[in-house]
Amino acid sequence: MDKYYETLELDKILEMLREETSCEDAAELALEVRPSTDFIEVCSLLKQTEDAFSLLARFGAPSFGGLKNINNPLARANAGGSLNQRELLRIGYTLRAIRVLNEWRSHCSGVSTSLDYLFDAITINKYLEDRIFSCIINEDEIADKASELLSDIRRKIRVKSSSVREKMDSMIHSAHYQKFLQEPIVTQRNGRFVVPVKAEHRGDVPGLVHDTSSSGATVFIEPISVVEANNDIKMLEGQEREEIQRILYELSSEAGSFAEPIKASYYAGVQLNLIFAKAHLAYKMKATMPIVNTDGIIELKKARHPLIDKSRVVPVDISLGEDFDTLVITGPNTGGKTVSIKTIGLLTLMTMCGLLIPASDKSKISVFDKVLVDIGDEQSIDQSLSTFSSHMTNIISIIERADESSLVLIDELGAGTDPIEGAALAVSIIEKLRSKGARIAATTHYAELKAYALDTKGVTNGCCEFDVETLSPTYRLLIGVPGRSNAFAISQRLGMDADVIENAKRIVGNENRDFESVLERLEQTRQTLEAEQRKAEEATERAKKIEAKAKSERDRIEQLKKNELEKAKQQAQSLLDKAKRQSSEFLLELEKLKREQEGASATETARKTRRIIKNQLGEMDDLVNPQELAQNWDYDYKLPREPVVGDSVIIRGIGEGEIVEINNDRILVKSGILKTRVKLSDIMITEKKKAEKKPAQRGVYRTSSRADADVKSELDLRGQTVEEAIGNLGVFIDKCVLNGLGEIRIIHGKGTGALRNAVNEELRHHPNVEEYRLGKWGEGDNGVTIVKIK
Q: In this predicted structure, what is the pLDDT of residue 490?
């Protein structure tokens, strides 16, 4: 691995990645991962990891257990070689793992990802998988059902062995042979059944001697009566071995014929295992996908070094490459300077490896051709010439290799030599690297570099915050703020004599003291502003919560109001429907009476009754939809005068009405056919304009007739045909003109709208109509038309 990558500890990240893999080849690939300098490839790798992360979150993790490298066995099988049981079982396990992986993907239906080409490369071979596992039980045993011949041979072996045992059992239990036997048992020697005979009686038991005990007191004799049966068993066992070899060769041949698709499927499985290992690692790190660019822009939000304990690491915000190309980080030792630049470098390398990074959303990382590093632990090396030489040798190499697509990270730039010369050399090195177009992040203790960063465009300061009160670093990185040395403050807090501190301040000179004083004031101002900002953010958050609570309460009240209103409307509608049904029945009775009786009086009575009932139904319709003003009551309204009987009023929650009786602060009002008592605070007086009499139009002369006595300001046309309605409308308008009415109400209903359109068309051309409009909510909506007479 590149030494710069090792310095940034990329090898430790890859070791963490290896632990997330499930098969040996994927583990090896994990350790071989290297940062890519190709922008397209980096984007592709990140997309694969993100897609795997998404699949994990939605469908759980796929299983890669059982994936084995079987390339060599498959190659031998393809070349005509015979594989043993262990090798064939490895092929079977791999085929099973590939099938399980493919089945997992099939459960993720309807989801298209950048990993589909790898899943599509998987070929399922259920036939060969079942064939292997049906023939081979384990590495030492072949199943009887592997072939009919093998099953038959093993059956014969069992029969022969049973026959031999029966003969020998009868022998060892016979009274004649028991006195010659050392023990009444049957055992085996060299695969043949024998009995243990005392050495002095070996001639008394006819048979073949196969072995002798170590003491020589026992000989193992195969009785002559079972020699032939043992020979048959030996022959059958030879046939069994031959049949097993044939079965293994046949399985090997079949596996060899599928070698290429199995290898391709295995390779796809290994690649998927590596990608899902990246996703698992991202899950453990709580990582996100950064926005990748090639412009040298790095913007890390709440970035965490992945090798530091999660409970101890402090998230930092780091930016580089957009407003400035060089970041000079200052601050006390152990304050987090080195960790900051290591975080920049390591997260950049992880991104280029296709790994998600432990940072907040919308963090930005650039793809660099070279990541060049000079980082050493200042506390573990001697500040000697040899150390300085080592650092300079590394920096010289960095300067030679750096270009416009390089990220350069240098820790303690210029350290290890005379401070004046070291500071000057550090400035010169930075300017040389900037002239080559590199992006630079460097740490230092030199005040000269702080001043250089303040005075130079494209270079900015950064510092690791230090709490002088607790004498401990906060590990926060502040961009744009130079760090203080804090040496005097720390020494004073630790108990150093005041005269020693003052003498040290005089020695460093006025210029340095002034510079440190400016930094101190800047730090105090920054802390004050941060405190105010936190207070403002907390106040804003509280205000948002209060606003959300108020909005929720308002919505709840509005909903309750709507529910109650809807409930009241439904109840009123129910009453109205019931009244309509009763009225319809009454009208039918009247029509029947009119048909049965003669004379104009019956007809006139029915007509008047019908008109009264319809007018009452219209009033009940108004009750179902009360006027808007009655619902949206102005609580600050005050009566302009004392109300009197006959005043027109608007009643809270009911609508228009008229005062019938006044009894102190309780008032009896009438609205339609309803009468109710209300408080003074529940009414609003409305002044109705008297209709102005205008000269009669079209030469119509005022006469007194019986029709005048019945004229009203409302005409109900519901239930009439268009022709009947238009005729009645003309007569009604003439009556209204004769009686000096200024405004009338035409009820035509909603229905299909045909009657409404005909009425509006007639009104548009009528010479005595000044203007007209549809009714508002509370007046009957578009079921009525309000007409103003000239």
A: 62
- HSE-CB of 662 using CA atoms within 13 angstroms: 12
Count of residues in the chain: 790
Q: What is the mean pLDDT of residues 189-212?
A: 80
Three-class DSSP labels, 259-289: HHHHHHHHHHHHHHHHHHHHHHHHHHHCCEC
356 touches 288 (CB < 8 A): yes
Distance CA 683, CA 653 (A): 10
Instruction: Point out the least confidently predicted range of 104-118, 244-258, 457-471, 530-544.
Output: 457-471
What tokens does 189 get? 């020697």
Alpha-carbon span 168 to 295, nearest angstrom: 91
Residue labelled with tokens 């014969």: 156
For 223, residues 6+ apart whose C-beta sits below 8 A from its C-beta are 167, 168, 171, 195, 205, 206, 207
Contact 347, 359 (CB under 8 A): yes
Residue of 385, 386, 382, 288 whose CA lies nearest to 46: 288
Token pair belonging to 118: 């790898």
Q: How far apart are CA 65 and CA 53, in angstroms?
A: 19
- Cα-trace Rg, the chain: 51
Which tokens is 741 given?
Answer: 């009415």
Evaluated on CA atoms 758, 760, 764, 765, the torsion sign reads positive
Residue owning tokens 């750096």: 402
Q: Is the pLDDT of residue 603 over 70?
A: no
Of 223, 279, 243, nearest to 152 by C-alpha is 243
Per DSSP bridges, beta strands 683-686 and 648-651 are antiparallel
Which of 328, 330, 336, 346 has its CA nearest to residue 285? 346
Residue type, 174: S
Residue 275 has which token pair? 């990608």
User: What DSSP designation does 136 have?
Assistant: E
CB-based burial of residue 466 (10 Å sphere; 0-12 exposed, 13-18 middle, 19+ buried)? buried
User: Mean pLDDT throughout 387-403?
Assistant: 88
Tell me, what amino acid is at 306? Answer: P
* DSSP 8-state assignment for residue 702: P
577-583: long-range pairs with CB below 8 Å, 24+: 579/616, 579/617, 579/620, 580/617, 583/613, 583/616, 583/617
Q: What is the pTM of this model?
A: 0.61
Largest CA distance in the chain: 164
Take residue 715 and report the two structure tokens written for it: 């005409």
